[in-house]
Amino acid sequence: MKKISILAVSIIAVSTLLSFQQQPKFDVKASIARGKEVYTAYCISCHMEQGEGIEDIYPPLAKSDYLMADKIRSIKQVLYGVNGEIRVNGKTYNGDMTGFDMTDQEVSDVLNYVRNSFGNKGGAVTPEEVKASRK
To answer: Biggest alpha carbon distance in the chain?
Structure first.
């Protein structure tokens, strides 16, 4: 009886410890790799291969102060688009960008790619942050 009680307590203790283990960390490198494919499919025609944009028409993503200034704004712009004036690297752009019908994972991936490419260095954008930013 005593052995059964000790065994039961041991099983409960191990189960409790396992339930408190952290979830695997978000894999930014894998997200960036997937994001390059999303960028190629959705963004490259306007923002170009190296994120340089098209002068006076499409703003650059390369070394972009605007992109890096507000992660949540960037999430919402990928989801819902943007129109009107924006100022990027000291230059004003006044155009339209359509929103994209992407999954939370795709938005996370493409933003991780552009925020960590073309001379940019940014923190991770997680699918959970994208989900929380949806209307």
So the answer is: 81
Mind listing the pLDDT tens digit for each residue in 45-80?
Answer: 999 999 999 999 999 999 999 999 999 999 999 999
| Domain encompassing residue 39 | 26-133
pTM of the complete model beyond 0.85: no
The set of residues, in sequence order, having a beta carbon less than 8 Å from that of 42 and lying 6+ positions away, is 100, 102, 110
The number of distinct structural domains making up the chain is 1
